Amino acid sequence: MFLINSNSAYKSPLDPRDAEALGPVAAAEVERFLSHRQNNAKTPLVSLGGLARKLGVSSIHMKDEGFRLGLGSFKALGGAYAVMRLVLEEASKRLSRQVDVTELRSPEVLALAKTMTVACATDGNHGRSVAQGAQTVGARAVIFVHSGVSDQRVAAIAGFGADVRRVEGTYDDSVREASRVAIERGWTIVSDTSWPGYERIPSLVMQGYTAIFREALRELQDPPTHVFVQSGVGGIAAAAAGHLALVMGDTRPIFTVVDPERAACIVESARAGHPVTVDHGEPTIMAMLECYQPSLVAWRILSRVADAFMTVDEQDAVTVMKRLAHPVGGDPAVVAGESGGVGLAGLIRAIGDRHIKAHLRLGDQSRVLVINTEGATDPLKYEAIVGEAPGSVLSRNAGAAA
């Protein structure tokens, strides 16, 4: 499925709240917060020149979030950042003064954080980020996971000291249960999706993601003409599209949102012209994107600044994982989890369809940016799909460098 944005809000200015959350001033503050986190380093921007030549475009660059903060996913930026912000805001309120991130590990802030409990639902990666953020500040974390989340991903969340609770059903069922219990217990919900009356914290989560694009734009010799980003509830796509629109203005790239065919809540919202919930059917291999109800904040942004929406199928996701593990034309190998390469899968599908290619004005002058949103966050599942362990795939890069 492929849709050009025909929403009545298309190309209208962002809501002032979203412009403030995703603009350059906020993004700079995100990077300042990052400097106070362990394992902080910019992630690689990988040039896929061999694949670009094969597809007939000028360049393809992939921002590889599989190395982000030791968590293996772009989600490391959002949940933990929001937890840090919320603890500092509560400290500022209780101490009657502005408390800065430089005081995060001070006795006063640590004592306050111990009284706080943060909660969220997750497919795996967001929960790890919230759990790590809570561990960093000394707060308690309760993470709700649905029945499809693998035991390895649950163990990774629990490894940060979180209380992990299983919920029957889908991701959206776990969101509802996390919200119900958190309200009942007086906990703070740190969700990466939003609903009526709950927008600010998801906006903080999305704000954390702006670091990805700030880093990429600094490193790229020429700005991208096209960006393909996978969706889920829409947070990462909205953060990308909103930030690029704000910092690049009229020169912003053509932006395409890519959904799994089996969980296309953003694409179906684009078709309907308003947020819609899609039916739960057969699970998708793209587990981190298996979301059936869009974030209202994300949709508000994407309806204005996304240019197109498309879906990819199960085989597209598998093929791109294998293609990145066994690259062409001297390109480096990239370990992409089941959802990690979906933006690139969208590009490949678009190039292979004359109708889509023409609509997106893809050609030999196109400079494409995509995001590997996750590495092998479930190594056993990765090996079962690709036929090789993630460490073995990455060892080829070391051998090439030698």
From TrEMBL:
Its cofactor is pyridoxal 5'-phosphate. Transmembrane segments: none annotated. The keyword Lyase applies. Keywords: Lyase, Pyridoxal phosphate. The keyword Lyase applies. Residues 39-373 form the Tryptophan synthase beta chain-like PALP domain. One of its GO terms (molecular function) is pyridoxal phosphate binding. NCBIfam families: diampropi_NH3ly (TIGR01747), PRK08206.1 (NF006058). This is PLP-dependent lyase/thiolase.
